[in-house]
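FAQ: What does the model actually see?

It sees only this:
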Amino acid sequence: MYDKLKDTISQLENEILRVREMEEAQRYFFSAASHELKTPIAATSILLEGMLENVGDYKDHPKYLRECMKMMDAQDNVISEILEIVNLSDGKISQDSEKLKVRQIVADILPDFQILAKANGQCIVMDIPDGQNCLVDSKMLQKVLSNIILNAVQNAPPGGEIRIWSEPAAKQYRLCILNTDARIDDTVLPKLFDPFYRMDKVRERKSGRNGLGLTIVRKTLEVMNIEYALENVPDGVLFWMDLPKT
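And it is asked to produce this:
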């Protein structure tokens, strides 16, 4: 009786701790989101006020209206991604698993990234054999892959190579994406999946990146119940995830 009561108390304490951690994570997320949106909204307000008063350069309304539209489009994207993360966290997005060819689902999204990589003097090499089938939600997996590959291209050095391959195991295929010749400080790696985290704040803001891509990756893979990791290896930075076999 005592042991059973002790176990029950321990379970309750663990559940209370889990709820507190979730509440703390939510507070951090919404605080970061508010901060992320506050600056561009203030900047847009200043531009509009300057145009209304016809102050100095702000008399050039077409020019500054385009700037306002650009900032509003960027914030619309941030808000959409915030809502996606909230819906994933609340379990409002369900997965529709189907039988997919691993090679095909990667090949379908590669062309746009190959153009971007080529413009940066990089190359993307895929080595996934035919005949490997997995059971996943296609839209969710494409979202994850798009974020990871885009992140790899944007962080690869000029002349770098991004390799994509799969390794068969008993119950899954390990899909690997390697950013060669890249390196991330080991203390930074765990933070990369945090909302709004940027390694280079100035450069990434200029590129239009909002620091939510890898957070969406993490939340999506949690919903899909897929194991994954991002780690430094001798050849570069490796992201892998285990796709269940059909």
